[in-house]
Amino acid sequence: MKLKLGIPKGSLQDATVQLFARAGFNIYVSSRSYFPSVDDPEIDCMLIRAQEMARYVSDGVLDAGLTGQDWIAEHELGDGKTGVLTSVADLIYAKQSFGKVRWVLAAPEDSGVQSARDLEGKTIATELVRVTSQYFKKQNVTVNVEFSWGATEVKPPVLADAIVEATETGSTLRANRLRIVDTIMESNTQLIANKTALGDRWKKTKLENIALLLKAAIEAQGRVGLMLNVRKHDQPAVLALLPALQRPTISALSDAEWVAVNTIIEERTVRDLIPKLKAAGAQGIVEYPLNKIVL
């Protein structure tokens, strides 16, 4: 038996392949094929655009796949049946960072648009047509929502009055002299499966194991392990410096006057922390990388 798994093609592709590698699954993508190979004989992969992933998983063409909450919502607001898809794992990562993506309403910097109501009767360009239409409907604002095939940021003010676009940092919007008016939704990647696949005990267990490892890889991102030795009389001062994930592990050494301390910390704090630990009496300090943290 094999699990049919969809990998998002496009902006999320590289980040997804890298995440799977940290989780222990090596996916090999060829520019000539939509069927990547993976070093797990129980998985068959297929590259599918994130925008279409929910439809193919819902229809049973794929057992599971990775896509954003935005495209799941877009699918279910259209012809997609609700209640068919289940989120197996909430995975907060994006193409540039380990964070959420915002879909924002943006207008030219020099326009007078301050809210959605200022766009009554105007044209909005976006890839997220159904979600955008629902947003303006809730605002009781009548607009013309047009599908954009890409390069959406360049369309105002000539081809559209405003846009709804995904952003992580807002830098592309600012570069095109656009100002964020409102946030329509936040989105992050989901590992989704259809209920038929989850009804199969083997596939359900396989997906749960994949989800466990993917979440563990995300938890480890930006963190490192730290080991050190310290005399018992210096232990309180050293422990006071350590922001542990849970609590530091303290182990006895062969010399009764010393203990070993093992903990997990944010990598960005290491350069400031190690000199302080040394000054507080720590010795034999070792920093080591982490691949996974299972909570």
What's this, in brief?
The chain contains nine helices and 16 strands. The protein has 295 residues and is an alpha/beta fold. It starts with a strand and ends in a 6-residue tail after the last strand.
Structure commentary:
28% of the residues lie in helices and 33% in strands. By secondary structure, it is of the alpha/beta class. It has a five-stranded mixed beta sheet with strand order 4-1-5-12-6, with helices on both faces. It has a five-stranded mixed beta sheet with strand order 9-8-10-7-11. α1 packs across α7 (201-220) and α2 (50-59) packs across α3. The two termini are 29 Å apart. The model has no long low-confidence stretch (mean pLDDT 92).
List the helices and strands and how they pair.
Layout (H helix, E strand, L loop, with lengths): L2 E7 L3 H11 L3 E2 L8 E2 L4 E7 H10 L4 E5 H8 L8 E7 L9 E8 L14 E4 L2 H10 L5 E4 L14 E6 L3 H5 L2 E10 L1 E6 H4 L2 H20 L2 E9 L3 H5 L9 E4 L5 E9 L3 H10 L3 E7 L6
Parallel strand pairs: 1-4, 1-5, 8-9, 8-10
Antiparallel strand pairs: 2-3, 5-12, 6-12, 7-10, 7-11, 13-15, 13-16, 14-15
Key attributes of the depicted protein:
295 residues; alpha/beta; 5-stranded mixed sheet; 9 helices; 28% helix
- Terminal Cα span: 29 Å
Radius of gyration: 24 Å
Please mark out the parts with pLDDT under 50 across 5 or more consecutive residues, or reply none.
none
Query: Largest beta sheet: what is the strand line-up?
Result: 4-1-5-12-6
State the share of residues found in helices, binned by percent.
Answer: 25-40%
Average pLDDT for all residues: 92
Q: Which structural class fits the helix and strand makeup?
A: alpha/beta
What's the story with the biggest beta sheet?
5 strands, mixed
Give me the strand/helix succession.
EHEEEHEHEEEHEEHEEHHEHEEHE
